[in-house]
Amino acid sequence: MFLLAGQAPPADRQISPSIPSSVQRLLDQLGRNPIAVHDACWNTISWNPLWAALAGDSSGLRGRERSIAWRHFAGLPSRVTHEPDQLACFETAVVSDLRSSTVRYPGDRQLRRLVTDLREVSGRFEELWQSHVVGFHSADRKTVHHPHLGPVTVDCDTLTVPGSDLRIVVYSAPPGSRTAQQFEMLAAIGSQDMCTAETG
User: Fold this and answer.
1) In whole angstroms, what is the distance from residue 70 CA to residue 90 CA?
2) Is 186 helix (H, G, I), strand (E, B) or coil?
3) Coil, strand, or helix at residue 58?
4) CATH code for position 40
5) For every residue of 141-160, which 3-state class applies, written as one string?
6) Domain count across the chain
7) pTM exceeding 0.90
8) Which has the closest alpha carbon to 133: 106, 169, 97, 87?
9) In what residue span(s) does the MmyB-like transcription regulator ligand binding domain sit (predicted)?
10) Which residues contact 25 (CB under 8 A, 6 or more apart)?
11) Which of 95, 180, 183, 196 is 20 to 30 A from 114 in CA distance terms?
């Protein structure tokens, strides 16, 4: 709103980890699909049981370890792989997203430190950051390498919540497909014996 009005955002504005009740209901009601909510730093701040069972339970992660951006560009373990063209789109969208967040939250120290450290540890991030490239999150396909089920290929959509800086990531599959059957198996198995989070 500030930018649309030609005004600078408040310098002390901070990224909020809170989730509107309507978004929480969405997580609760879409139990047949893995779904997670991320903030403007791409920290995973909420998820449903099927997400934990497929991508890993983030409850044991602290601080920056919950940031999808940090985990990806810093080379931390992940169960997720992309096709080369989709990987490029994903990386471009994340960097562009973080750049926009720094404009909206100029005083958020966590965000500033995240960007600074990413530029230091990742040549790819620095390249994209310096290029001022603009990217958008679009529907794509990912493969999640589950420790018990093997590769699970999902359709991935990133949704935004009007009036907030939340990103909702939803994994889905066509009805009757092998992936849909794997979702059903995961719903029955749960995240037992799958405590290590390698989200993406």
Assistant:
1) 13
2) helix
3) helix
4) 3.30.450.180
5) EEEEEECCCEEEEEEEEEEE
6) 1
7) no
8) 97
9) 20-186
10) none
11) 196
Q: List the pLDDT tens digit at each of the 200 positions of the chain.
A: 444 444 444 556 677 666 777 777 777 777 789 999 999 999 999 999 999 999 998 888 888 999 999 999 999 999 999 988 889 999 999 999 999 999 999 999 999 999 999 999 999 999 999 998 877 777 889 999 999 999 999 999 998 877 788 999 999 999 999 999 999 999 887 755 544 455 55
CB 199 within 8 A of CB 169: no
Residue 6 resides in a domain: no
48 located within any domain:
yes
Residue position matching structure tokens 């390498």: 145
Q: What is the spatial distance between Cα 16 and Cα 23, in angstroms, rounded to a whole number?
A: 14
Write the CB contacts of 171 (distance below 8 Å, at least 6 apart in sequence).
33, 34, 35, 51, 54, 142, 144, 154, 155, 156
**Are 133 and 89 within 8 A, CB to CB?**
no
Q: Which two tokens stand for residue 89?
A: 């789109």
Question: Looking at residue 164, what is its pLDDT?
Answer: 81
The answer to whether the Cα torsion of 129, 133, 138, 141 is positive or negative is: negative
Residue 89 included in any domain: yes
The answer to whether residue 79 sits within a structural domain is: yes
Expressed as residue numbers, the domain containing 61 is: 21-189
Chain centroid, CA 130 distance in Å: 22
